[in-house]
């Protein structure tokens, strides 16, 4: 009879380490985690039970203010028994090599894996060999779980590009747009902007584009916080910069007014640990915003106008960019529609005449009617 568990060998193999859960009955996606647990015994073993378990764990780090201590919360737990006796007592397993196939069903919508720098929500599959006379043997493998976005039906995004328009106190009209309000993780997209000055007394000198990620965490108050502040829940807010790029326009290539049109690339990092996708839940809300700052100078090079606009959007996970090994292969999101020019302006767009249809960072000045 075997008494030393270290002489046995165990191997937990998952068919997929990245799972996309579909709310529809799509044969391309399977709402379960499948695999096999391999056990090699050199001799007779006494075992109480063999099972696999999927757990989800949310980790919220302290923020030095409202959340004084690191917190952990179990969000999901489901197990499946692979081997046991009918009486649930210990049983003897002869020497040999065994393969236990398993399939753990998932809900049609799961709390997604989040691996960004601020908060973490992870899933783990544990294969557990329960013993009567010594500590249980646990073999673990991480697994990533994401929800399949409904908006990617047939890989066609039909939404009208989000656009903001306005006019500064100095009567500079502008129009800013991005391809879609839903952007795949790790992708590159272009922000189109058009500015029109009322007279040739100002010129566009620089553009800064920033993508900001905001975390709003809501957790249960501790007993001390509840008694002191008479609250049941506390909220903590964090923000981080996902992307920022400043482009200073060459003075010799920029004329004084009256109109400028640009297309600036935004390259989201292709790193699962650099930032997170957009999440909405009772505990964590993660949102994303694109911020564009435009700076104007007079003919003497003095700053005269600063324009700042924000466009909220969402970042989502998709099997088109997240591979099974966790690597990210972002796509280029095209904007096939032009934003309207500022009111009263006519935009001379080189894309109508260039056979390649490409845009440089600076397209050029446009003429008013």
Which features would summarize this protein structure in a list?
1 helix; Arrestin-like_C; 22 strands; Immunoglobulin-like; mainly beta; disordered C terminus; disordered N terminus; 2% helix; elongated; 6-stranded mixed sheet; 369 residues
What report would you give on this structure?
Residues 169-319 form the Arrestin C-terminal-like domain. The chain has one helix spanning 223-229; strands at 9-14, 18-21, 32-41, 45-47, 49-60, 71-84, 91-93, 96-105, 120-130, 137-147, 163-167, 173-177, 182-184, 188-196, 203-220, 233-248, 259-267, 279-280, 284-297, 303-316, 332-333, 362-366. It has 2 domains: 9-148, Sandwich (Immunoglobulin-like), CATH 2.60.40; 157-316, Sandwich (Immunoglobulin-like). The longest helix is centred in the middle third of the chain and has 7 residues, at 223-229. Strands 11, 12, 14, 17, 21 and 22 form a 6-stranded mixed β-sheet that branches. Strands 13, 15, 16, 18, 19 and 20 form a 6-stranded mixed β-sheet that branches. Strands 2-10-9-5-6 form a 5-stranded mixed β-sheet, with no helix packed on it. The protein is mainly β and 369 residues long. The chain is built from 1 helix and 22 strands. It is elongated.
Chart the SSEs and their pairings.
Layout: E1 9-14, E2 18-21, E3 32-41, E4 45-47, E5 49-60, E6 71-84, E7 91-93, E8 96-105, E9 120-130, E10 137-147, E11 163-167, E12 173-177, E13 182-184, E14 188-196, E15 203-220, H1 223-229, E16 233-248, E17 259-267, E18 279-280, E19 284-297, E20 303-316, E21 332-333, E22 362-366
Parallel strand pairs: 2-10, 13-20, 14-21
Antiparallel strand pairs: 1-3, 3-8, 4-7, 5-6, 5-9, 9-10, 11-12, 12-14, 14-17, 15-16, 15-19, 17-22, 18-19, 19-20
């Amino acid at each position: 009879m075997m008494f030393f568990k270290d002489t046995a060998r165990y191997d937990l193999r998952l068919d997929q380490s990245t799972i996309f859960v579909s709310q529809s009955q799509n044969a391309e996606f399977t709402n379960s985690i499948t695999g096999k647990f391999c056990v090699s015994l050199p001799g007779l073993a006494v075992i109480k039970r063999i099972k696999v378990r999927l757990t989800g764990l949310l980790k919220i780090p302290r923020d030095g203010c409202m959340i004084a201590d690191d917190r952990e919360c179990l969000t999901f737990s489901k197990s499946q028994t692979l081997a046991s006796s009918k009486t649930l007592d210990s049983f003897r397993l002869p020497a040999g090599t065994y393969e236990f196939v398993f399939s753990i069903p998932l809900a049609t919508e799961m709390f997604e894996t989040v691996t960004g720098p601020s908060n973490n929500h992870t899933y783990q599959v544990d294969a557990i060999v329960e013993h009567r006379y010594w500590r249980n043997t646990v073999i673990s493998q991480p697994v990533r779980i994401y929800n399949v976005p409904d908006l990617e039906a047939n890989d066609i995004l039909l939404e009208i590009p989000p656009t903001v328009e306005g006019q500064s106190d100095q009567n500079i009209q502008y129009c800013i747009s991005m391809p879609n309000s839903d952007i795949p993780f790790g992708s590159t997209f272009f922000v189109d902007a058009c500015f029109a000055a009322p007279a040739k007394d100002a010129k566009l000198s620089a553009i800064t584009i920033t993508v900001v990620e905001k975390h709003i965490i809501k957790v249960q108050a501790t007993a001390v916080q509840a008694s002191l502040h008479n609250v049941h829940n506390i909220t903590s807010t964090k923000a981080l910069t996902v992307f920022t790029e400043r482009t200073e326009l060459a003075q010799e290539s920029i004329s004084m007014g009256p109109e400028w049109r640009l297309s600036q690339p935004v390259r989201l990092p292709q790193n699962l640990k650099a930032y997170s996708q957009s999440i909405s839940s009772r505990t964590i809300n993660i949102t994303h915003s694109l911020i564009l700052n435009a700076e104007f100078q007079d003919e003497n090079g003095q700053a005269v106008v600063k324009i700042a606009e924000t466009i909220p959007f969402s970042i989502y996970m998709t099997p088109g960019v997240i591979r099974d090994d966790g690597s990210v292969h972002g796509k280029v999101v095209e904007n096939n529609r032009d934003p309207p020019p500022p009111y009263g302006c006519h935009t001379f767009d080189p894309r109508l005449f260039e056979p390649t249809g490409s845009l440089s960072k600076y397209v050029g000045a446009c003429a008013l009617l």
